[in-house]
Amino acid sequence: MQLAKRVQQLPPYLFVGISRAIAEKRAKGIDVISFGIGDPDIPTPDPVLDALEKGAHKPANHRYPESEGLPEFRKAVCDFYMRRFGVKLDPATEAINLIGAKEGIGHAALCFIDPGDTAIVPDPAYPVYNIGTMFAGGITHYVPLKEKNGFLMDFADIPTDVAKRAKVLWLNYPNNPTGAVANLEFFEEAVRYCKEFDLYLLHDACYTEVTYEGYVAPSALQAKGAMDICMEFHSLSKTANMTGWRVGMAVGNSAMVNALMRVKSNIDSGLSQAIQEMGIAAINLPQRWLDGNNAIYRRRRDRVVRGLRDIGLDAVAPKAGLYIWTKTPPGYTSADFARVLLDEKDIVVTPGRGYGPAGEGYVRLSLTTPDERIEEGFRRLKGWIVPPPPIK
Ligand SMILES: Cc1ncc(COP(=O)(O)O)c(C=O)c1O
Q1: In which band, very low, low, confident or very high, does the pLDDT at 98 lie, cut at 50, 70 and 90?
Q2: 5-43+288-381 in CATH: which number?
Q3: Is the CB of 106 under 6 A from ligand 1?
Q4: What is the pTM of this model?
Q5: Is the pLDDT of residue 13 over 90?
Q6: Class of 62-285 per CATH?
Q7: Which of the residues 75, 153, 176, 245 has the least number of beta carbons within 10 Å of its own beta carbon?
Q8: What is the Å distance from ligand 1's center to 244 Cα?
Q9: Is 204's C-beta closer than 6 angstroms to any atom of ligand 1?
């Protein structure tokens, strides 16, 4: 017996060595501080939990949901797009709900990629764009995001023959892991580029609401002509501290949204309606709640950046998102630096290589670590002289 190639081909879990080391340390009672995964430590707000309580008692919610989501959920999403981005969407055809954005992102390739087709994917990136492509039998063409370009994709870096044969282009701004942001002109350029090469544009907009100092992130759908070729993914995971509840949405071009709905309706039975009702409450949280939540992350961002600079790292404060992306000290690979932080200081960071080849030479720190743990982490790092890199 043999497992399917798509499973055999899954990249080795890069963090396996680090995960083992963390588990060993914790088993010995060592206090390990994690800046690893981006999973908000702050609880889901009360109005959202209240909606679950109410929704749980409705018998209609005890039955199978529709794959595309409750009409009320889709309307709340479209109302949000209008008030937030000025983008008019039809709830009946241009919005569906997802079991978290990850589910929709993973399944999207099944809508657009046939075996042997190419997907253009940023590097570094959230790994699911590549894995979804691989599961659909497609080939990923990575485009390095360069620091000198503010980690924006430079479309001139894509060879013309690749653009001609590719089917989709993935983007993600505000960006995980680099913290980069894109303006509307960038999305206009992306739409022009995709139209020129007959590409579907898939934009992951999961972090548009986690922003600092008045920065307002655009939606790709605001770009002229985007509705002809673009589908955008959104999530309440980070916006409203809801990673555990799995509420996401896909919006945009109706044929693209319909294709995803058809794929989903054949392999999942939608998101629990009571949880969709939580989603509606989350979408309608007042702006002052979002501002308060983002103020916590901003304080942490500044603390982490200051702490990293104190040990000689060149950290930059992002305008949005939950991550600090910083270069490793000279001579260190991302895995070696993550390892030395764990070995010497019991601190976990994510090696940049896990986000693609161009992530090498960086590590990522997540701001979803409680303030007192951040303080303790940087207390440990105060005055630390980074040892020379291992000799290979
Ligand atoms: C860029 C990006 N897209 C999508 C997701 C997944 O979001 P969700 O929790 O809605 O599945 C994440 C989660 O970390 C992410 O960083």
Answers
A1: very high
A2: 3.90.1150.10
A3: no
A4: 0.96
A5: no
A6: alpha beta
A7: 75
A8: 12
A9: yes
